[in-house]
Amino acid sequence: MLILSILFLNRTLRLIIILLKLTMANTSKIDNNLFKVPLSTGFRRFFYFVKPEESSFDSPENVPSYINEALPFFFVLIITENIINWYKDKKMMRLNDAMSSISAGIISQLPLLFGRSIEVVVFCYVHKHYKIAELNWNSPITWWIGFLGVDLGYYCLHRAGHEINLFWAAHQVHHSSQDYNLSTALRQSIFQRYCSWMFYAPLALFLPPQVYMVHVQFNLLYQYWIHTELIDTLGPLEWIMNTPSHHRVHHGRNPYCIDKNYAGTLIIWDRLFGTFQAEEREVSYGLVHPLQTWNPFNVQLCHFKWIWLRFNQEKTILDKLSTIFKGPGWHKGTPRLGKHEELPEVEYPVKLYDNHLPYWYNIYVFAHFLILIVAYTELVQFKTVN
Length: 386
Ligand SMILES: [Zn+2]
Ligand SMILES: [Zn+2]
Prior knowledge:
- It is a multi-pass membrane protein.
- The protein has helices spanning about 1-25, 25-35, 40-45, 65-85, 95-110, 120-130, 140-165, 165-175, 180-185, 195-200, 210-225, 235-240, 245-250, 270-275, 295-315, 315-325, 360-380.
- It is an all-alpha fold.
- The chain has one domain.
- The protein starts with a helix and ends in a 6-residue tail after the last helix.
């Protein structure tokens, strides 16, 4: 045990030295680039506090990657949330869970290093070949239509992500954490974009692609800060906006939370379409059948595997197709979304999937993880457009 500890101490120190060298070698670059925008600008973007005139562009090429510019802010807010939790003696982020979430976030963004998002490609194609009107990119009215259109598109794709098993296979990644904190927001699927483009494509019939590209990013940024237990309720804003309270319900696995609150920015869509649920009692987070792994590949692929098994088990072509296109809770003899009464009640106290490593193992893994973060941050410097 002692030899192992010394070995890991040695490896860890070497990794930290490599990390420091990497950071110091690029100190000037990182110092200049870490916060690409003023702090006030960076933070208000999370709340959609942006004016149309500062976020309207004449071409898709000129739209900044707001997500990449927000990267350091993600980590500043995660650290801040944990300091407050520690100060208030509340539940802190678990390192294994947070690393699993952030890894999923990095994996989900990797295809963007090699090319444009399929959502943007399809949007530009539809707009170029099939548009029926051309709204003025420079008009505040277009900006507001973009805001509402993208948010409604998000509601539809999010609802489909829960009600169509194939899309759920992608979206379940976001729900697979049993914790609920800012790191959970980063837990995203690499496959989600391959489902979501079709829900935004109708907007391309009239909305300039650059307006879409701005709002789809702000819509995502807005959803970051609502992944927290630190904020209880926000008074009258709860009527109109998606809030931490509403989104906690969305992440709940208690039967009363299932298939509720699909909103991105505005909760009005859920109120309009009958999927709204207020937070009533303690929420237990995660999947109805909690995931028992930290393996990032399993996190991304497990439900596709499960669908494949179910597909092969079903006898008729109709049932095979139902396995793919009906809800994740469907089985033969139930309605499209399954039976609500079949949802298992949560047993308290909740048993979290967890494992404990020796102290030095944790440092070793964390050092690797820091290198990964630095490497990823360096890589995205080359990428300016989503
Ligand atoms: Zn969801
Ligand atoms: Zn969420």
